[in-house]
């Protein structure tokens, strides 16, 4: 029986999720975006004692230009402060515009501050967990790390500001990057099951192609 549109999207959403066990770490490293629920999740992890340091990284990207008055990192940091995280426990990196830069600029910031970390708790949006794994394995694989995201289901992820069609298009864009970026040296290759890629091809033909890489 053929899968429905929603079932195919759910298949891809589930593939992006890693469902890793989170561990106490030297720092919580947050890759910022438009989704303030990620900031809230990271701040709660700090408040729950998972790490003594909270790092926010992000300038402004395609989805946040004009949305925030400050950089993504500064906006996320303000969310954390409002939740009770002290400023002294927060580092902010405001130049990164992609995942690779999140890593490289944060490495530089830690060196500048003479802060050594041997383990990181990485925080991202749910549909970016796998690509974060692939990018870290390529670019920062000499430390221990685990990955987490807000516990939000696919059906509940859209909001008044983030439509269903946007979420559908962007999770396909993330899968396309998992396919293409290893060939460019940006990340480690991930095994993409045949049924997941078949769903990708079906859905892009239906027009969910806004965030695909250019041919």
TrEMBL record:
GO cellular component: plasma membrane
Top-rank taxon: Bacteria
DUF218 domain span: 26-159
Membrane spanning stretches: none
Residue runs in coiled coils: none
Pfam families, alphabetized: DUF218
Name of the protein this chain belongs to: YdcF family protein
Originating species: Aliivibrio finisterrensis
